[in-house]
Design goal:
The protein has about 375 residues and is an alpha/beta fold. The protein contains 15 helices and eleven strands. α6 runs parallel beside α7 and α6 packs parallel to α9. It binds nicotinamide-adenine-dinucleotide.
């Protein structure tokens, strides 16, 4: 067991740490500074996370730290990011009651993190939240940066708030119990960080996957990948807390990826899988526009395939794809903006001609 790494996220004049390591959940109380005045904690989680054995160690550690601990289980799946589920959480916090100085602890994937984070942002005008992400996607992305929220029938993440956690605890051992497809999905974001900011990630993945397809399940490798990915997200978030500028570069692969997710109903294609398809579009589009060297694009595409991610998009109604991309937060009055790569670790924002985007999507859909 190696010593955990602490990565600081200095935002709002108040820093918090992301702790990355192995076997750290059971000693959680030693790794994070809990709010001094907290007397009670509400642990928000889901059945698969409980069944995998990740919730009890967290609760035991919180009790050791002197907190009165209550568990609230929310439904599994994206459907939990719902106003009725949120209202139930608010009501149960009110009944306890959870005081302004108490703590919400999110133990689960991005769904639990977004929902519990938003409950914490809003209950009692805001209580502290500790994020304990248990999926690869949540560890490298969702749990860091303070974005929280729920979905409406009209769209995903339409209601939410920025609410930075008091700490984030990423124990890579919990990833061992993830369903295979969910774990592989998280690698979509990891490869994205490698392409957009930290090419060492690409190198590490290539080294371990050798010549052919391989599962990425070595805990030491996972720890290094999570650490590096968290470092990228933390640095970008700190520099630019509310989107725009640098933070937009984290959306490499997401413009088209979001459209694929939205048009397939958020269940057929997982987020990280959609990002993988979006990365391939961004890479090939970059080559077509003369922005991206072909060697960089080939390397990225090969790696996505090797770690087991899908790279061919489903055939979708093109007008609907454009309509969704135009609603993307990066779309400006001048058209749909894409993050492209000038090189490994170097991004640029471009508004490409729509005919070029269509040509690449045609090519991908037909392949
Ligand atoms: N806030 C942000 O910045 C941000 C960024 C990216 C994604 N998100 C959100 O994250 C959500 C997706 O998150 P996700 O991919 O983690 O999915 P998820 O939260 O639905 O988790 C996937 C499944 O794995 C289970 N699970 C979680 N940890 C487990 C473990 N260790 N062992 C066994 N099973 C486990 C969950 O119960 C669930 O069934 C989306 O709602 C998305 O909008 C938010």
């Amino acid at each position: 067991v190696s010593r955990p790494t602490r990565i600081g996220v200095p935002v709002n004049g108040r820093a918090y740490d992301v702790v990355v390591g192995s076997r750290i959940l059971e000693h959680l109380d030693e790794h994070v500074t809990l709010p001094a005045d907290a007397a009670r904690a509400v642990v928000v989680t889901q059945e698969p996370v409980i069944a995998a054995g990740h919730v009890e160690p967290v609760e035991d550690a919180l009790r050791r730290a002197g907190l009165d601990v209550h568990r609230r289980e929310v439904p599994d799946g994206e459907g939990a990011k719902d106003v009725d589920v949120l209202a139930d959480l608010w009501a149960s916090c009110a009944e306890l009651p959870l005081a302004r100085t108490d703590l919400v602890v999110a133990v689960g994937g991005g769904v639990v993190g977004d929902l519990a984070g938003f409950a914490a942002a809003t209950f009692n005008r805001g209580v502290a939240v500790l994020q304990v992400p248990t999926t690869l996607l949540a560890q490298v992305d969702a749990a860091i940066g303070g974005k929280t929220g729920i979905n409406l029938a009209q769209g995903k993440n339409l209601v939410g708030a920025f609410h930075q956690p008091v700490g984030v605890v990423c124990d890579v051992d919990v990833l061992a119990t993830l369903p295979g497809r969910v774990r592989t999905e998280g690698l979509g974001e990891v490869v994205k960080y490698g392409l957009s900011h930290d090419p060492t990630i690409l190198h590490l993945l290539e080294e371990r996957t050798g010549g052919g397809a391989a599962r990425v399940d070595d805990p030491l490798l996972l720890e290094e990948l999570v650490r590096r990915s968290v470092a990228v997200k933390a640095a970008v978030v700190a520099a630019d807390e509310r989107e725009g500028g640098q933070r937009a570069f984290l959306n490499l692969g997401h413009t088209y990826g979001h459209a694929i997710e939205a048009l397939t109903g958020y269940d057929l294609v997982l987020h990280g899988e959609a990002v993988s398809m979006g990365l391939v579009l961004a890479l090939r589009l970059g080559v077509r526009l003369g922005a991206t060297p072909a060697t960089v694009a080939d390397r990225g595409e090969r790696l996505l395939e090797r770690v087991g991610l899908p790279i061919r998009p489903p055939t979708l109604d093109r007008a609907a794809v454009w309509a969704t991309m135009r609603r993307d937060k990066k779309a400006g009055r001048d058209g749909v903006r894409f993050v492209l790569l000038e090189d490994e670790g170097r991004c640029v924002l471009r508004v490409p001609p729509e005919v070029d985007v269509d040509a690449v999507i045609d090519e991908l859909e037909r392949s």
